[in-house]
Design brief:
Blueprint lengths: L1 E6 L14 H4 L11 E4 L3 E3 L5 H7 L9 E3 L26 E3 L5 E6 L5 E6 L5 E4 L19 E4 L6 H8 L8 E4 L10 H8 L3 E2 L6 E3 L12 E6 L5 H7 L8 E4 L8 H13 L5 E4 L3 H6 L5 E4 L1 H11 L5 H25 L4 E6 L10 H18 L4 E6 L2 E6 L1
Parallel strand pairs: 3-4, 8-9, 9-10, 10-11, 13-17, 13-18, 14-15, 14-16, 16-17
Antiparallel strand pairs: 1-2, 1-12, 2-3, 5-6, 6-7, 7-8, 18-19
Length: about 400
Amino acid sequence: MELTLLGTGAPAGLPRLDCLCAACAVSLGVDARAATAVLVDGTLLLDLTPGAAFAAARAGHSLGGVRQVLLSHPHDGPAVEVPAGLPQPGRVPDGRELALLTGHRVRAVAMDAPGTGYAVTGPDGQRMLYLPPGGAPAGLEEGAVPSYDMVLADVVGRPDALAKLRAVGAMGPATDVIAVHLDHDVAPGAELARRLAAVGARAVPDGTTLTVGVYEDVPDVPRRTLVLGGARSGKSVEAERRLEAFPDVLYVATGGSRNGDTEWASRVSTHRERRPGSWRTAETCDLVPLLAEDGPPLLIDCLSLWLTDAMDSVGAWDDTEWGDGGERKLRERVRELTAAVRATRRTLVAVSNEVGSGIVPATASGRRYRDELGRLNAAIAGECEHVLLVVAGQALTLRG
């Protein structure tokens, strides 16, 4: 089954007309995207958009052989003119299946937002799923959904759509995930590619033809990632974003509840509100057993608070206790944690503060903490396939 992406952008296109944002300003050339429309084997058109006939011609195809046009979402703005000879567009009711004379079967998939998804099975048995902008499948049951060879979805706007598909076995490691309906939420180019690769997806330019089921270099999701950054740099947001497309994430909060600290309670509440509802939370600094267990991905936020707890437990703030075995005990705890990160089979995203580039602490205990955090970050980074430094909300790749 062959797909030609006549467009890969949001319904308004990219760049948006009259938009002065930074993403639109650099969405030029191959990064410019028309509204998403997909031509399947030259016979089925998913979403009719302005200029579809010209887009097909530029890609070396014609719409003359199209026998069915299906819409996936409500179209705002002026009505789109149907090119001569093209069937009138329609939508398939949720759960219904449409059999085409060409041997294709199209099943309408219910969404949790206005729109319809389409699961297309080609004559050769290959399966493709196309989702509308802003939508994720609804009512999926494990084992009742086939595994798709390719998924076209609004990965940036609804990463949880991938989490839902992964949770029921509808996506596997070899599923080719193509990001469509791309808008100006993320700057195109390297930043978009990095963001998509973190969840195992990729983007292609308008006019690209893809063969469903043929092996592609699907981005490998890093198994261990360390996200570093200063205060309010956006490091926690970056870490959470990397796991939004995965189900059953365990969020490990190392800071505790700090009863009576209203500022801390407000921070914790903010973090909880932006996390997906399917994630679970564990408040603990006992990380080694969690890393040793099999289970869903771990998000540890953060290692700097784990270090504070570890230094408390060995009396690191007292010079006498520090010199009388405290330093040795802390080194052993760091070695245990580092070994656990090295041996873990779980997907791991860990967050830590980068404090070595600021003002030198005025106290000996402050300088001790800064030094030990630097050593801890270096040790954990050495065991991670992917290391990021977040500055002003921008993630810089240090490794991977």
